[in-house]
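Hi all, long-time lurker, first post. I run a small reading group and we've been trying to get comfortable going from sequence to structure in the token notation. Rather than ask abstract questions, I figured I'd post a concrete chain and ask someone more experienced to write out its structure so we can walk through it together at our next meeting. Sequence below, copied exactly:
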Amino acid sequence: MTFPCCGTLCSLLIATGLLLGTIGQSPSCSGQDAGSDKGSAVAGINIWPQLAPGESTAEVGTPLAPRPSDPTITRIEKITRPTIDVFPAKNPSGSAVLILPGGGFRYVVPDLEGSEAAEWLGELGITAFVLRYRTSEGPENAWKRPLQDSQRAIRWIRARADQWNIDPAKVGLLGFSAGGQVAAIHLTSVESAYEAIDQIDRQSFRPDFSLLIYPWRIYDEQTRSLISPIRVTQQTPPAFIVHTHDDNSTSLGAVHYYACLKVQAIPAELHVYQTGGHGYGTRSRPNSMIGTWKDRATEWLQINGLSAD
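-- Answer (accepted) --
Happy to help. Here is the structure in token form:
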């Protein structure tokens, strides 16, 4: 098997070692205003001044009925007005992370794959922003509107860096599941997904670092490479990547993404756990060590000078 996504053949031997455990980092190469209380969470901030691109309505979405298997998980569907929830760090390091929850594009999960991760990041001195991006009814290019929202949100964060005690050069992107697919596309994009509309869009939409947690379906089984919108280059930011061997979404996408970063000599770290399935967020799972991924991510953030410790 080869990794044609980078224009260079990569042996599967690279990936074989990855599946067995932790891989260290490689050498570097290639709206509406929020409140003034920087210590309190602020919810529902608009990222677009009026309607989002291509929209005719501005709906914040409707909660789906809780699933009996886990009523603690919130699912919001029919979002046409994307918003940000801000979780300021009490002892800010200057770093910020935009979180893209999962939900298969039909809905967004703002707690399991949003606020719970924001709380963990806050403990590290990292201010977190949970994006409730626009959802979609159909599967065709369902990532396009969320990509617009994600790019706009990164620019929005940088435009308000002083307000939230953020270093504009330390703005990262974290994506879970479908949000991980959007994040991978965002991280490798070189052009804006929408036309500039105001001063905010003068900011760069390129994140400075990334965390991809069980990114959903970024592997194309027909081409045996990353899906076509994902094109890793020397400008792609460093990444911390997590997946499980028993996730049907599949971990091959995570392996290929890491391999492409390796070819470009971009700092990266990949963890593929044997068990854990999909959709665990920052929580633990029975008979799995997947709950320790936060510890590995904490170490990675510390090594890269992005946390308060």
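A couple of things your group might point at:
The chain has a mean pLDDT of 89.
Residues 273 and 289 are 7 Å apart (CA to CA).
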